[in-house]
Amino acid sequence: MVNLGLISGNKGTKSVRLSFRIPYNTQWGQSLVVCGSESVLGSWNVKRGLALSPQHQGDELIWRGSTAIPTGFECEYSYYVVDDDRNVLRWEAGKKRKLVLPEGLRDGEVVELHDLWQTSTDGLPCTSAFRNVIFRKTWSTEIQRPLGVIQIKLDENVPSEFCYDVIEIARVDEVELLTSQLSADICDWQFYEIGAVEGNFCPETGPNRELVELSEPQPRSIILSDGMMREMPWRGAGVAVPMFSVRSEADLGVGEFLDLKILVDWAVESGFHLVQLLPINDTSVHRMWWDSYPYSSLSVFALHPLYLRVQALSERIPEEIKEEIQRAKELLDGKDVDYEATMATKLSIAKKIFVLEKDTILNSDSFNNFFTENEGWLKPYAAFCFLRDFFETSDHSQWGRFTCYSIDKLEKLVSKDSVQYDVICFHYYIQFHLHLQLAEAAEYARKKGVVLKGDLPIGVDRNSVDTWVDPNLFRMNTSTGAPPDYFDKNGQNWGFPTYNWEEMSKDNYAWWRARLTQMAKYFTAYRIDHILGFFRIWELPEHAMTGLVGKFRPSIPLSQEELEREGIWDFNRLSRPYIRHEFLQEKFGAYWTVIASNFMNEYEQQRYEFKEDCNTEKKIASKLKSCSESFFFLDNEDKIRRNLFDLLQAILIRDPEDASKFYPRFNLEDTSSFKDLDDHSKNVLKRLYYDYYFHRQESLWRQNALKTLPALLNSSDMLACGEDLGLIPSCVHPVMQELGLIGLRIQRMPSEPGLDFGIPSQYPYMTVCAPSCHDCSTLRAWWEEDEERRCQFYKTMVGSDSLPPSQCVPEIAYFILRQHVEAPSMWAIFPLQDLLAVKEEYTTRPAAEETINDPTNPKHYWRFRVHVTLESLMKDKELKSTIKDLIRGSGRSYPPTSGEIEVQAGREKGVATAAPTKQQVTAGLEKISLLNGSPKTEAVAV
User: For the CBM20 domain, which residue ranges apply (predicted)?
Assistant: First the structure.
């Protein structure tokens, strides 16, 4: 036999056996692969990675695998869940693992890696919200894996390395390992931080860590990665306010990006670590007040010109333009936002300044850098805006030869030789300055230790840049919405086309990843709007107006064969409107014959069907509008429309793509058609309905979310929160927990069954808690709008049998705020209106006027403005002190103010500082002397 080592001039390479061990429970058809940076682990090609084999150990499934490697081997690696074809289903969160072998290994020895699956929860401290903002000034090193290694011997033959991660929030001089038992079979221990302050030490929280039994034959070395240092959970507070609602002394009728700097200052002075906004993308679809709806994006990349500060466009603005700005400022300084007037004024002034300085700006290095980095979306956006204005519509199906987008057509539109080039450049110019102003505010927030939290809308407008450029990514013949819920008994129809997820998956969701990458330029946290849409979406036909006639996509429908087995045969009866003359009489009284003759055909005696020109919701609305004068003697048009919509509802919705499949209509028991069925059919349909909505879809929806959400979460390092309100499938919260997503808890809309109000002291840590949000009434308005609920809350949550005050007095607001800041939730985020309610002088405006959105009204005007300027709030020391004392007393973290930084510096230099007085410490608690005596207190479990 030839000695290959002699031929090559080498003596042969020493090798060791590398053994992987990780506990992880998979589903049928799934397995684990370890993949890494070196060829032996696939060189990051998961299909060539090392396959692991499962072994049951009690209730746990342990995955193991081994491979030979040379001594001195180093690599990065991660674990992946794959299907039978090695397609990746999901992967670990956080940073890649780093492997460095111990020194002194001999040929043939075994090194065993004991790992735990890294969840997104473990990676939360590595998100930009914590790493770049909250701990920006205190972290001395970047987290690496491992940060440190402690070597011990379980016996003389098995040296072990304990790899630990330490987030250095304070000055940590060293980490020490304390063990209570060491043997070759088992070991438990805790880590201690040593030397944080003058030699004091801080132990980990929770039970001791435990090393599992060693495998046979015993390995030469064990490298144990046992997760992050366990410390008390970090908790913070934030304020939420839409960008358009902010009022300052410098704005032009609406909040502007540069106003965020003052808002950040106020947040710091009041003890907040976070400022949350609604979406800020351009929504200029109709060029009218309808565009005030911030969730209907014209472009998911472009910023809204509404938030531009025109005074900051140039340092050389002529006096006549300055005077025009001042006049506009006085004219637009109203109680609410005048969307159309504000947009028109800002664009008019911006065009005048653009003419004066376009050559300077467009030839500058900073603009050219911006253009180069963003031209992929900026050129289509500018071209779209030009075509929208030229054709006087955003409906690109009306644009003739420009209806179908192409690169060639785009390049001609934006060419420097085109007659419209100045118009195109104006849109570049506006986006450039919006970028500069938002980036300035975002960096200011980071330096102040304040997280800027954005909002990721679930949909885009049907007539948007995105549907023009990438129509294949959308199902343009459908619409998205929500089934009937707390907000609206008729459901909601948002009008957005649903996503073609199958098409999006072909490039690993590049469109979504680009959105998140763009968003991360400004934000360090974000809210995923309607996160349920990533599990399944409520899909409506294009002809729907309400949310009643929808179905979940994806979902497993009822098959004709399944229904026939249950004795259901009359599919035409169940899938078409069922209208008897008694129903018409009941809804329209003496005038039922007028309605019947205009809208119905009598297809058999006393049985009716809708005419062809009014057999959908949109057709009914259109016909009512065109002949409303004929019905002047009837009730109002809205009531007629609602009653006709009710008659339109069938029990089963037939799949338009497969006539043998059916979807049960939401709340089918409420239909007149259902009530007229025989008992057997009723019982069967109720059982199938319950199965469809609450059982059979769970596995499908879980798999769908685990395909789509990781692509989003791994495309940026922002902290991700999910808006999980509404009808929540049982698979949602486990998936959110697995992916490290923070949920939302609104007290008056409890997630827990059987509760009238959420109990903040029992909320999970991975949540944002809030007394209200932009989609419901404010704290004050809610208190005043429903006497029965108010009394119920006062009795169950305040603990008083007396009659509550009819107004939400400051003491009530303070009590509810205190409930939330003391909750275990990671974040307590309060709408600014709810915070202002703790001071009487800010409660003079009618409470109903402070509500931002009415979800039941698809044409709601989003125009609320805070009635006090940010500058005035900065001067209100009493309000800031009240709020900060509330946060301080709850144990939540808060950013230090300039004065506190100076005090801390004085302490470090040995300068004595006065301790806070008892009066200062208890100021917040004394606020809560409720009308019936002492307040009810709650124990907080963290």
Answer: 10-119
91-106 in b/e form (b: 16+ CB < 10 A) is bbbbbbbbbebbeebe
Confirm whether 900 is domain-assigned: no
pLDDT digit string (tens) for 885-905?
A: 999 999 999 998 776 655 555
Residues belonging to the chain: 942
pLDDT digits (tens, 9 = 90+) for 382-406: 999 999 999 999 999 999 999 999 9
Q: From CA 103, how far away is CA 14, in angstroms rounded? A: 13
Query: Contact 410/379 with Cβ under 8 angstroms?
Result: yes
Radius of gyration for the alpha carbons in the chain, expressed in angstroms and rounded: 31
Tokens standing for 239?
């304020």
Q: Alpha carbon of 720 to those of 266, 296, 709, 723: distances in Å?
A: 24, 21, 11, 10
Q: Which residues contact 203 (CB under 8 A, 6 or more apart)?
A: 178, 190, 191, 192
Q: Is the pLDDT of residue 145 over 90?
A: no
Same domain, 359 and 418: yes
Number of separate domains in the chain: 2
Based on the fold, state whether residues 111 and 196 are members of the same structural domain: yes
Judge if 340 and 360 occupy the same domain.
Answer: yes
Q: Would 577 be classed as within a structural domain?
A: no
- Domain around 68: 15-118+135-168+192-225
Please indicate, yes or no, whether residues 351 and 407 belong to a single structural domain of this protein.
yes
> Please, which contacts does 743-747 make with residues 24 or more away whose CB atoms are closer than 8 Å?
743/767, 743/768, 744/768, 744/770, 744/773, 745/769, 745/770, 745/825, 746/770, 746/771, 746/772, 746/773, 746/776, 747/771, 747/816, 747/819, 747/820
441 and 362 within one domain: yes
Does residue 87 lie within any of the structural domains? yes
User: Is there a single domain that holds both residue 303 and residue 427?
Assistant: yes
**What is the Cα–Cα distance from 431 to 397, expressed in whole angstroms?**
26
CA distances from 378 to 350, 374, 395 (A): 18, 6, 19
Q: Please report how the helices 339-362 and 421-447 are oriented relative to each other, as an axis angle in degrees rounded to 10.
A: 100
709, part of any domain? no
Where do the H-state alpha helices sit in 363-457?
Answer: 365-391, 407-413, 421-447
CATH number at residue 57: 2.60.40.10
Q: Could you write out the DSSP letters of every residue in 714-739? A: TT--SEEEE---SS--TTHHHHHHHH
Q: Over the range 566-593, which residues count as b (16 or more CB within 10 Å of their CB) and which as e?
A: eebeebebbbbbbbebebbeebbeeebe
3-state secondary structure 801-868: CCCCCCCCCHHHHHHHHHHHHCCCCCEEEEEHHHHHCCCHHHCCCCHHHHCCCCCCCCCCCCCECCCC
Residue 154 to residues 149, 186, 221, 246, 518: CA-CA distances in angstroms? Answer: 15, 8, 10, 62, 50
Task: Identify the CATH number of the domain in which residue 360 sits.
Answer: 3.20.20.80
Is omega for the bond preceding 729 within 30 degrees of 0, making it cis? no
605 Rama class: left (phi>0) / alpha (psi -120 to 50) / beta = beta
Torsion 597-599-603-607 (CA) sign: negative
Q: What is the largest CA-CA distance in the chain?
A: 107
Tens digit of pLDDT for each residue in 248-299?
999 999 999 999 999 999 999 999 999 999 999 999 999 999 999 999 999 9
Residues 37 and 106 in one domain: yes
- pLDDT at residue 935 tops 80: no
- H-state helical runs in 97-194: 120-123, 128
Name residue, tokens 């009866």: 573
Nearest to 76 by CA among 99, 95, 93: 99
End position of a domain, from candidates 425, 448, 471 = 448
Q: Are 388 and 418 in contact (CB under 8 A)?
A: no
The average pLDDT across 562-579 equals: 94
Q: What is the pLDDT of residue 2?
A: 38
pLDDT at 859: 86
Same domain, 319 and 443: yes
